[in-house]
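Researcher: Checking consistency across runs. Here is Heme chaperone HemW again:
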Amino acid sequence: MPGTLVAMPGALPEGEAVPRDGSLPAAARRAVGARGFGVYVHVPFCASRCGYCDFNTYTAAELGGGASREAYADTVLAELALAGRVLGDTPPPRVDTVFVGGGTPTLLPADDLARILDGIDRTWGLAADVEVTTEANPESVTPESLKALRAAGYTRISLGMQSAAPGVLAILDRQHSAGRATAAALEARDAGFDHVNLDLIYGTPGESAEDFAASLDRVVAAGVDHVSAYALIVEDGTRLAARMRRGELPYPSDDVAADRYLAAEAALDAAGFAWYEVSNWARSEAARCRHNLLYWTGADWWGLGPGAHSHVGGVRWWNVKHPSTYAERLAAGESPGLARELLTPAEAHMEDVMLRLRLATGLPLDVLDAAGRAAADRALAEGLLAADRYAAGRAVLTLRGRLLADAVVRDLLP
């Protein structure tokens, strides 16, 4: 089934130590920005914890001492200053995209989010056509805060709607009312945001086909130009997983999730949206999330914040998870990087196939070895790849192929 790509997993991988000053190999620094450069900013604060979420986020009660929302922007700016020193005389040519995610970034004052964006501009320079996105929970924004964000240079907002059904929102432990997400989307458009996204989750226990159809209807009526829709993933350690283990709720059904995905494709296609990644639809090419495309096409980005991941010139690293430890490292003048890895050609190839096959532009067939090409031939025969695009030298998933995307990727790889 189509799944979600997450930037902030609950558990960090292992790797070699990051130098205390955060320095990178000269080859990585020379290559920075060759395929585009973005900045990700993680804001790890939430007013409450959703039952399905295992992201690196903290409520006030979970945060403990040594970190605070009030000092957070200054801490991020300290990491940004370190990043500027690391890249030194080999900076990226420009910052193409900025994405502020969480958590709930809009729990920070709009002035703090503006200061962070200004710091990125002063450090590396924002492209004239830069895309600047912030995530937001619907209840965390007001018409006034949205106008302030737009005035600060934010061009795109992604609102966590998840569902328009009150019962589904309750199971997910969402705090906003059923109508608040679409109201916030309208407020964002009135504030002048160029692009507005609404996120949906489908396959929640208790969600009916009618519930999901109503959610899609609400999304279309809100006039947004981008929709993300993800199957519910039950992560170990979450409240939702515990409820399922106790038998209070049934586990998600793959068959139901497939039906929901087909319903999303039908409704969004009829409303003028087109898929450009397995779980993402846009009304136009301009409405596609350029920051996510940067991830999916192997470009570079610097991730700021606790638990954030970065990728520069084939080197990937990730920061310490807890905001207190993150702040302590930076206060001591040290990199907050916990560990890193240099991607091997085989690993880079695997990720390239895995990510680019999820895109509507597909994967060039000439990047596959003989075994991969044979697997692609079988996928074509099974109706999982589009015949016209295959004849033109690209592997592009059909609708049926999107439902089986993970299996197709596995077959194409050694």
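Researcher: Does this match what you'd expect to see?
Model: One thing to look at in this run: Residues 344-414 form one domain.
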